Here is the input.
Amino acid sequence: MHVLVTGGAGFIGSHVVDELLALGHDVRVLDHFHPLAWGSSTPPALPDGVELVRGDVRDGSVVASALDGVDAVCHQAAMVGLGVDLDDIADYVGHNDLGTAVLLRELGRRAFAGRFVLASSMVVYGEGRYACPEHGVVQPGPRLVSALDAGEFEPPCPVCGRALTPEAVPETAPLDPRNVYAATKLHQEHLCAAFARETGAAVTALRYHNVYGPRMPRDTPYAGVASIFRSALEAGRAPRVFEDGGQTRDFVHVRDVAHANVLALTSDEPVPGAFNVCSGTPHTVGDMARALARATGTGLDPVVTGQYRLGDVRHVFADASRARDVLGFTAAVGFDEGVTEFATAQLR
Here is the structure.
């Protein structure tokens, strides 16, 4: 099979490329090497046998060239992370939504009928799933600034104000993006769903939870929390943990995420729809900071700051059953094993 991986030189895309090559597939990479993602880093040499098309996914002529002869597309190219402020909004929409639209347009012009895998995200859920002892499953609204300022980080029941119990979020949960990045990822899913209906192509949206591991970008406002913690520890600083550190996430290793992509691309039958890509075992942000501090041997205890970001949510962790039962995906890298490796792994 001949596969195009957009963003294939990046963090997750490069691991997808590695696994596809190991299985004997032909791989072409389309990558822009955007300075917001790469900074002053020198782009790495791609593995032997990988064809590189260097260009912007928003450029139709570049995309048309990259699609020539491909059987399947793995769309990883995107601006990621919470960002800095609303000055980022046009860049997020341009790279994520317009870029996806151009890619789908060019596929439509070729009457593409192969597999298309989209890198989506758990951010489309907003807050995760919560249960109230009186009102059952409820969807809390955005947390109030006054509550956050007072250190009240848990969202209350929107009906009675009582404390809620967070639960694993399934793919059928209501979608409620709470920041610009999240809004663009949901729009990508909607564009791909429209493309699938119009063309009959098999589109799989993989909703990544908190991905970490080797080649993760560092020293950028768009880096993930695990990378930010590790960079602090390497610089001799204690990791700074927002809120009270009790925010719950599912940290999933990048090799597991790559494997989920390859399963969606190569399964005997198409696997359309959305899937949580996760470890199935939630941990708090504080857990990640403490585990990294132990693994690096620095002796630096995390500092809990009480600070917050308005675009953040409190608890979102995944129900892994659909990915297991339909896609055949189960994460293989445990939290302790993955964090120990990540403590000394090469970052970008």
